[in-house]
Amino acid sequence: MSKKGRVLVAMSGGIDSTVTAMMMHEQGYEVVGITMKTWDYANSGGSKKETGCCSLDSINDARSVAVDMGFAHFIVDIRDEFGDYVIDNFVDEYIAGRTPNPCILCNTHIKWEAMVRRANALDCEFMATGHYAKVAEENGRKFIQKAVDSNKDQSYVLWGLSQAALQRTIFPLGPLTKPEVRQMAKDYGYDDLSKKSESYEICFVPDDDYRGFLKRRVPDLEARVAGGKFKDTDGNVIGEHIGYPFYTIGQRKGLGIAFGRPVYVTDIQPDENVVVLGDVADLMRNGMQVGKVNSMKYADLPIQKEVVTKVRYRDVGALSTLEKTAGVVDVHFLANVKGIAPGQSAVFYEGDDVLGGGIIQSGLNYN
User: Fold this and answer.
1) Structural domains for the chain
2) Is the pTM higher than 0.70?
3) Catalytic site residue from 53, 54, 106, 124
4) For 244-278, b where at least 16 C-beta lie within 10 A, e where not — what string?
5) Confidence class of residue 225 from pLDDT cuts 50, 70 and 90?
């Protein structure tokens, strides 16, 4: 047993997780690699060639690194766990008129829980992944911090991790930039890996056509929601759409209707099969309600304290204050925020520190 202990490293076969495993090995940990198979591309019905973290090539790449460096590697089939939870939620959320973020759900409820179980079974004290983030500690609580590389920072997608998971989690890439990681891969002798492209699609929608995926997953969905109405912000019918689940808040392209000026989806009303269209000003909100909140840095979120709130992954964030009411958190923005989409995540920051996050229930305009 290594003096530093045994660490379970999640290996997708990509550059980030591979360099993570190499760094853990170099730092003196006893590394055990694990590759989680979450999805069969053949089941997606899409047109894109199999690529990404669940492909056979990626699994073989991960195993090859483990063999080269002389540590154990296991492939774990979590397709049933993933499908029942992540994919069912993805479909249910769109049918409810919301816009889900399956990668966040997968991280917090599937991959980390799967890693904890396997780490326990393999006597691994620690777990490491190739996420660009840091783990910090203050007053006995662990929390996520932003990575050094702002272009790669993944703190937004990790807001749901529990204290128990954070106590054992290591993010070696948090202090590094992507170019540094690519150079490390070259230095380790994996020049081909350093040039490997990255996938940004949802793993079970490899062709990036979520509408097609929903139709294949729920064969009668298209018939159930056909004939819905477009309305303007005054409630006037201005056209017909193909079904409310096939639209998202803030969408401008692919509406199938022309007005001679840019129009956006500003609201989705699933009970009436109505999609509301308006101008960019109609997307603005000065508040929102957030549920299913996980408080990370503090035992409870700081109320009435000014924080920065991000409403999407690439969002720069907006100054806001928080207030608790009836089991949800009311977020009051100091300036209007565009395109708040129910179903997406809201993440609260204090500087680089993640205070916590939750799921957006609704965008609001407070008086």
Assistant:
1) 6-130+172-194 (3.40.50.620), 224-278 (2.30.30.280), 284-364 (2.40.30.10)
2) yes
3) 106
4) bbbbbbbbeeebeeeeeeebbbbbbebeebbbbbb
5) very high
